[in-house]
Amino acid sequence: MKHLIFTCTLSIFSLLTMNAQDSMMVKKDMMVKTDSTKSCCTDCYSNIISVGGKYYFNTLKNTRTTLSQNGFLMDQEAFEYQVRLYNLPKVFYYQQLGTLANTNYVSVTGFGLKEDIRFNIIKSSNFVLAPYFELGGGYYRMNIAKGITSNTISSVLGSEVENYFLDNFVLSGDVGLDLGFGFAIDNNRLSIVFNGGYISNVPTEWRMAGSLAFKEKVNMSSPYAGVTVRLEMNCTNCGDKTCCK
Questions:
Q1: Residue 21 belongs to what domain range?
Q2: Separation CA 143–CA 74 (nearest Å)
Q3: Is pTM beyond 0.85 here?
Q4: Quick check: 189 and 45 in contact, CB under 8 A?
Q5: Helix, strand, or coil (residue 60)
């Protein structure tokens, strides 16, 4: 009789132990599933498309001085237009116009790629505050025209116009600060970011025909101000390392 009671007690204890172990395994499995569906980052967004521009206050000063001494007037201000798709480098177009003076005209245009490193100080879905470094490289061309009597096509066709090109490849870098605000749009965010900073470059000679170098060098040093409109998607995939970083 004692043997029977002992056997029954042992069987009940074994069943209770097995049930407890099964329950713990189920809870653990539920926790793993819950963690796997949880987003790895909060208020994290990844760029879809960004468009913007920069206004350079006083750039190519040494080049403008040389041109002015020879009867060519170029604006001290310049504009740069930028676009970025996803996390690819930014593509930019540079434009610095001139003024027609005594049949002479000159302008500088350029295009290339830029990439930046930003340090987000305020990590919020609404506010943007981030200092940054930006490095870039691009091709720049000086367009020189002589003999233009007025800014009409007929004046060009009816006169002897001389046209020259000077070019170079420029490596540039700048430091700046982003300050902006974001608006939620469905599962995305639209940010308007104002920025300002200072750009400089590695001095390079103006060249003609790709090889004839002149002693005058490109000096793009200038303060600037700009604005960027950025459309971003919300990061919901924990495995997206490019998004949650």
A1: 1-38
A2: 11
A3: no
A4: yes
A5: coil
